[in-house]
Amino acid sequence: MLKQTQQLKQIQKLSPLQIQTIKLLELPAPELEQRIQKELEENPVLEEVTDDSPEGEEKKNVSLSEYSGSDPTPSYKLYVNNQGKDLKPQYNTFSVRESFHQSLEAQLGYCRLDDRRRQIALFIIGMIDDDGYLRRDLESLSDDISFRLGIETDENEVEELLKMIQEFDPVGVGARNLQECLLLQLGAKKQTPQVELAKRILKDFFTEFTKKHYNKITGKLGITDEDLKEAIGEIVRLNPRPGGQIDDSYSEQIQQVVPDFLVELKEGEPVMSMPRFSIPELKVNKRYADVLMEAANSATREKKEAASFVKQKLDSAKWFIEAIKQRHNTLQNTMNAIIDYQHDFFIDGDETLLKPMVLRNIAEKTGLDISTISRVVNCKYVQTHFGIYPLKYFFSEGLVANDGEEVSTREIKTILTDSINEEDKRKPLTDEELVKVLSEKGYKVARRTVAKYREQLNIPIARLRKEL
Length: 468
Known about the structure:
Layout lengths: L15 H10 L3 H14 L3 E3 L30 E2 L12 E7 H9 L6 H13 L10 H12 L5 H11 L12 H10 L5 H12 L1 H5 L3 H8 L3 H12 L13 E7 L4 E6 L2 E5 L8 E3 L1 H10 L5 H41 L1 H6 L10 H8 L3 H8 L3 E4 L2 E4 L7 E3 L5 E3 H13 L9 H10 L6 H10 L5 H4 L3
Parallel strand pairs: 5-8
Antiparallel strand pairs: 1-7, 2-7, 3-4, 5-6, 8-9, 10-11
Helix pairs in contact: 1-13, 3-4, 4-6, 5-6, 7-8, 8-11, 12-13, 13-15, 15-16, 18-19
């Protein structure tokens, strides 16, 4: 038996203006400039304000309510002035980052491969995790390639291409386990007696080495403790996480970056402005607005179609100009809130003065959504008198010290690094002992948190830091 029921659902639908604003918020200054140029090319109603514009024209109000079939949307002042000073060209160069996988793909571009084998190699690179390891067996990998790419291959061909990738930088990338990773790195070093001995230890006595059974190694190899110490010295200098050797698996690459904000000290206080660069000022073309007004009361079909087209373009121009304004205001409010929150840092750039800050802190301060703050922060940069910084730099996790005061994770990591640098290498500090060290200094941190920070600092576990 069929039964009919009625349900009332509330669905939130974003307006064209909201959609436009969200899209523009995510764009850094150079991409915003490109987006505006694209809009100018595609919308004849939109045009750039020039010095020779007739006086008063650029600030004309175009009210759609003047036309028949009036638009219920409130009229807007269809003009935007991107205020702010231009920066000198030397401010535009900044060291940004290229992803770990992009780096591998770029190196693949130098290899002589046909299109089929290149696709297989790209698939293998895609399977390498952020630590630099290929944690898949070659049989299942070759099956995946056949199924997903429609390219018939086998384990031998996959391994051949993997060996090629294992020659890429960083050394050790593409290893299937720690043992292979370390051996790859030793193989790339100058083959001294110490390196040769280290390779033999890892190849034939890996289990004994990881368990610190040094007596078994010296006994079976017939070497002295000093020989073993020198070989282990070669091993502990290797990188167990080649993909993560640089923060967030990124490598440095020089590109042109335009800072979205400029912070200067005026009378000892940080003051923010938004550089204009080559982002043009926009207005609605009066000629097209007049076409719409002329056709509004016309009875001819052709003119009404023309009026409908122009009205559509006018709406689009109105939304775009208003979205540019809202983007400017949102970025301005967000950056001012960050400066206020991190006031002491912006005075002289002392990293120790950075307070723990998350997106929620700035969202509450500005009254904006966390998602909005996230979009503002993404790919944006600020120029200060002590350097250029990505906005993400100012956000970090925070911990609470024993006295109830919030401290930055950077502070915790500094203490961890100093403690490990000063430890007795014959008996290195375990994660549990590091927890006690932090506790004695007034920081309450869980063991798993210490382990996470240690890994982020690329510091191996105590067992691998042990020296003879």
